[in-house]
Amino acid sequence: MQLLKLKEGQFIDFLSYKKIAALISFILILGGIVSIVSHNGLKYGIDFKGGTNVQIQFSDQPNLDTIRQIFSEKMMNNIILQTFGDIENKEILLGLPIDSPLGTGERLTLELKNILQSQNKNIEIRRIETIGPKVGDELKISAVKAIFIALGLVLLYITIRFQWRQGVSAIIALLHDVTIVVGIFSILDKEFSLTVVAALLTVVGYSLNDTIVVFDRIRENISKYRKKSMEETINLSITETLSRTLITSGTTLLVVLSLFLLGGEIINDFSFALLVGILIGTYSSIYVASPVSIYLTNLFPPTGESTANS
Amino acid sequence: MDIKVKGGIIVLALIASIYYALPTYRAYQPGVDPQTINNKVNLGLDLQGGMYLDIEIKTEEAVKEIVRRTAVELEDLLIDNQVDFVEVRIANESIILEMEPGRKVNLDSEPYKRFLVQFIQDQKINLTHLTLKEDEIDQIRESSVNQALEVIRNRIDSLGISEPSLQKQGEDNIIIQLPGLKDRDRAIELIGTQAVLQFQIVNNNATQNTYNKLTEVVKYEEVWDKVTNKLISKRPYILNKKILMTGEFIRDARVRIDSRDNSPYVALSFDSIGADVFAKITQRNVGRNMAIVLDDKVQSAPIIREAITGGEASISGQFTVEEAETLKIVLKSGNLPAPIEIREERTVGASLGEDSVNQGMNSLIIGSVLVLLFMLIYYRLAGIFAAIALIFNVIIIISILGVFGATLTLPGMAGIVLTIGMAVDANVLIFQRIREELIRTENPRAAIQEGFGKAFRTILDANVTTLFAALALLQFGTGPIKGFAVTLSIGIIASMFTAIIVTRFFFDLFYLSKTKLNKVII
Question: Between 20 and 30 A from B155 (CA), which of A44, A173, A258, B257?
């Protein structure tokens, strides 16, 4: 079985769609940014903003409106209530603000049981997560640091293995991917938490993987077909690696999909970020990294240094 | 390399990894207590249920307390020695001694010198500033963290958790992990109560008009409604500022039941020094009320009818038996040298942990099966090679985690699942290359060799970059994210080994070792 049957040297003209691709990327990025700005920033999870999340399971279907009312009678209006996972799990996720006296208190489970007793006799508190203000700030710094470490290492490695033009194009492709995934999280009003950052960095690694495979082939083909134009060489390289790109994306998507559908609600946002990120990452290694590297090569033509070094 | 040698190495690696993965398999069979088995993959608290707590010891409070105590002591000594001073006060964490104009006291002589050696003196006319030395502050901080560690360890022993873990982290943090914890509230109370016990005399005659803030202090007794858990009232007491005794002399504490009203109370017994002190202060204050103050809240203020010489005291209040138990434990274990603050808490119930394990396993199994099926259908015989390499890969990940006794978290499981999807990438790169070469050349031997050769560099590049991302994630300390970074890193390295060595071996065995090469099925 084979996805593509092409003769040697034959290729698909990917780059003829680069303007459309640029438009799509532009719309996705702009949409995300507009959404982030109109929401006054990202919707941070407690990892970053601090606070307490409590996952509670009820024996009967909970009514969020009633629960919200109970809390507001207790002068606790500043809570976030949402159903957690499938309706049939009868679970809610209660978010308490960082300054809530309940949060780190020794009476949290007791008080919650008292508060919710009128709503439902049998509740089970399944998970409590509290992040204090200091840890929230520390995690924010760690997250930013992690992203810069990853991007820095990548830039360094690609510059050593290829050229700075490829390094920069790869970084642009990565920023493109990350911006779009973050934007989609904002558009869908999903929480931006630490696990999402982990997923983003995985996407960075993954997307780069694709980009490098294409770059590797471009380098190989440049020395092989010296007479072909840059565009042609890139088209050829993308075509030649297309099967691999699609198959690897496919198998990775299979496992991520199984994580997304079966892995449970706790890692759902994580799986979702991976799912979107892998799709975008595959696309960007074809339509962002390569065109940008052509653009950079035209803008800063290599002088003296060999196009196919190492 | 000779194919037999290669095969031998691979078989050895396989045997070794199965051997090291086996404890993990055995540990999680039904009816087995995982703790009896060593070198296994440990389940994170998010998978087995329990509490993760990151607390900060407010060591600056311990420093302030030392300063405060020294000030009181200095004041007492000055009074005892009939020195003419105006007052001893505390400002900006240093002690200020104000003398009457023209009067002097030599603080470098006994009895002052002894307990002021850790202070730097700065004299200005009739004001003397006493400031703690920097290295003394550091030492107080460090010892208060160590002391807190010890106290908390003693307290959580009473929770009956089989494998609690306490670790100092950074300067003044402690990470507490309590697997299998059932009662979250009780654990927080045990860990978080500072349990500073003080005995102070109540000034019964004081009124608002006579209140003297230099010698007296107001503390409250809180009355809670047990049913609704609400604070009903706060009863104020005017106490003499002087603390007559603290809980440091407690030798033992027990919960007893008062036969008159069946209410529980905590009976304390002091060591011999404590018993002497207690006898002295009770003798001096017969007929007055003595407040028993716990963490600045008055618990009770019984009247002293006669000198108590037996070295026993009791704390009554409106306790439930449970509360009395907790109080007993915190008093027995001694007080924390400083208050604590909870920086981070992650508590997961056992049932949720179990659900997470099942969900993680399901996605692992279904994901793997789908990937394996795809590889078999798409690459046929070569797909079988890849499938074997993939299974080998998972065994290696488990064995490495097991050897290091690593902890598997839910994101860690996700990391393994993800690795499976990405691990086939190396195989795909090789197989696609071989296919391409087969189109180009009629010679299958050359195609296989070229395929592996050319794919190798790409595999290396691609995997190294994913490793970078994993490395960047490793800095997230002990949290769940680290678990993900660890499994992802191990998975990536293992996948390179299996693709480049194991898959290659199968090609060697099935094709390259044959003198007449078969048609390559790929």
Answer: B257
